[in-house]
Design a protein that fits this description.
- The protein has 317 residues and is α/β, with parallel strands linked by helices.
- The protein has a single domain (3-310), classed as 3-Layer(aba) Sandwich (Glycerol-3-phosphate (1)-acyltransferase), CATH 3.40.1130.
- The protein has helices spanning 11-23, 28-45, 47-60, 66-92, 95-100, 107-115, 130-138, 153-163, 176-184, 217-225, 264-281, 303-310, and strands at 102-105, 119-124, 144-147, 169-172, 189-192, 203-207, 210-214, 227-238, 246-252.
- The strands form two sheets. A seven-stranded mixed β-sheet has the order 1-9-8-2-5-3-4, with helices on both faces. Strands 6-7 form a two-stranded antiparallel sheet.
- Strand 8 (227-238) and strand 9 form a beta hairpin.
- Helix 2 (28-45) packs across helix 4 (66-92), helix 3 (47-60) packs across helix 4 (66-92) and helix 4 runs parallel beside helix 7 (130-138).
- The radius of gyration is 20 Å and the shape is globular.
Amino acid sequence: MPAKFYHPRYWLVWLGLGLLWLITRLPWPWQMRIGAVIGKLLYHAIPSRRKISCVNLKIAFPELDKQALNTLNKKHYISLAQGLLDAAQSWWGNEKRLEKLTHIEGIEHIKAAKEAGENILLVGAHFTSLEVGGRIIAAHTPVDAVYRPHQNKLLEYLVAKERNKHFRKTISKRNIRQMIKSLKDGHVSWYATDQNYRLKGSMLIPFFGVEAPTNPSTARIAKMTKATIIPIFTLRLLGKGSDKRQGYLLRILPPVDNFPSGDDYQDISRLNQIIEAQIKQFPEQYLWSHERYKHYHDENKDFYKDYLRAHPDVNCQ
């Protein structure tokens, strides 16, 4: 442990991580109840993010009235806080306990692709249980995980240390060359590519009917590596409704046909549609607090403020 991480500037981070570690020792239903309490507090504590998620939800579900929209938005913040505990579960959770909480659909798609000698790129999306999904899939097949480095150096150090215990290799999203090499060498890679992307080469592609700056690299990487694209999602099951299971559902879909087709716009649009279909089944669990449509046409304009001005009926309380 580098000595610099004992500096007082990191003491609050240590305290937060220590509390998360302690919570992972509790029974899983208790963890989810604690997450629900934190989520309700979080909803009221960050009004700027609450407005962003409210607008995103209204775009995705225009049929919702004001009351239904605000109810779904509150559920999202509960899911967001539970996702933080899911992440802690992925870092420090007991292996046997996590195995009991795991439900997998479609693992045969990965097995079939491996048996056929295909290069495999697992493409996920930013659901709130994304982090724990990595640990679950890594328990079933060696995988290289592409991740976004944390800005906090202590958090980056500790999380990287825990991830490296489970993944074959971790690759920064800034090091796409390493990801391509990994795929060409026959290693399974896993990443999520559905967040706002405004760098060179981005494309405006519809997400729930509104154009959003999107990374088209999945199609380009698949072309370079001849990789089979397999969608994969991690979803939280709370034992409610007709599905009484509790824990995490790792849903692996069949490989995407004719991908890449040679038309990047159509290919990424198809991936967005696959993601949208999963979101509609678990609407509160997607990362709506992310500014998915930021700078969608003009960097000098604020999409979310403009949307709220144009839709005064959307009351994000």
